[in-house]
Amino acid sequence: MQSAFLVNAVYTESAREHGITSQQGVLLCVLMMRPRGMGELGAMLGLAKSSLTGLVDRTERNGLVQRESDPDDQRAVRVALTPRGRKLIDEFYPETCRRVERLADGLGDADRDALAEVLGRVVRDNEVPVVFMEPGEGPFSKH
Amino acid sequence: MQSAFLVNAVYTESAREHGITSQQGVLLCVLMMRPRGMGELGAMLGLAKSSLTGLVDRTERNGLVQRESDPDDQRAVRVALTPRGRKLIDEFYPETCRRVERLADGLGDADRDALAEVLGRVVRDNEVPVVFMEPGEGPFSKH
DNA sequence: GCAGCACGAACTAATATGGTTCGTAGTACG
DNA sequence: CGTACTACGAACCATATTAGTTCGTGCTGC
């Protein structure tokens, strides 16, 4: 429980050092694998589409993602990482993982395993559909 | 096999005596239970929508069905029996059944049962979705 | 107080869907 | 032969639905 808050704090801290907010971090993580449509992102992140527009706006303004138009559907948009966004997430993501692991350095094996499990879940949450997310919780929130 | 042609012939004959074609008869049978949309009818009868427009046109011109607009969908149309259509099908349908049954009068029990089964299938074909129809066959065609 | 975050309602543009029209063609009937 | 019925596909119109954005509101943290 408390460790979950810790993880979250470390994550947010790490994000800030990279010059992004935690929400923008989640967005980048989701885009790590491939570009996504707005609707898709809204479903994955559990956001209303109007909220997502803003988040993508701000992240785009930071030069980390860009909107591309879907060739198959003229109204649809694909949100993709820019080179800068790719570079940032390629640093941010593994570094954050390392930091969280380091939290467990002082713990016994049992506790460390539990924490590893949580982080594993975080990773999965960023790659698979919403099915594994409790409602109202973002993929990086406390477990 | 041959009995199937017989059934078909009797059916067509009966239809003509009632002043309708066999296709129009099938249409009326399908509408016996309740009104249907054009798309739904096309699926049940295995007709392209342009073909169905014509069939409904002609049957409507004969005063047996009417188009009503679907209250829930302004582009959709429901095809329903008129009082005349209701009256006609209420005579035509059971009479045709009787005629077909009478065909079996000269037969042994086994043959008669087989024929009854065919007619039962015809009835079912008019009430359940297309699933039970072989592709390319109308509900009254030979089995 | 300003920037980020989130929401719902109203809106626009693009696409999907339900039916009709039109041109073509095969079949049956007088 | 001509007329009526059947059937099809392609083009078309009107309505529905969908993808995103904009706008107005409110909340949080610095």
Textual characterization of the structure:
Two copies of one chain form a homodimer. The first copy, chain A, is mostly helical and 143 residues long. In chain A, 61% of the residues lie in helices and 8% in strands. Chain A contains six helices and three strands. The first copy, chain A, has helices at 2-17, 22-33, 38-45, 49-61, 83-103, 109-125, and strands at 36-37, 65-69, 77-81. Chain A has a three-stranded antiparallel sheet with strand order 1-3-2. In chain A, β2 and β3 form a beta hairpin. In chain A, α3 (38-45) crosses α4 (49-61). The chains hardly touch. Chain A binds a DNA duplex (30 and 30 nucleotides) through α4.
How many DSSP helices of chain A? Answer: 6
Low-confidence stretches of chain A: 126-143
Question: What profile does the largest beta sheet of chain A have?
Answer: 3 strands, antiparallel
- Average residue pLDDT of chain A: 79
Strand order of the largest sheet of chain A: 1-3-2
Number of strands of chain A: 3
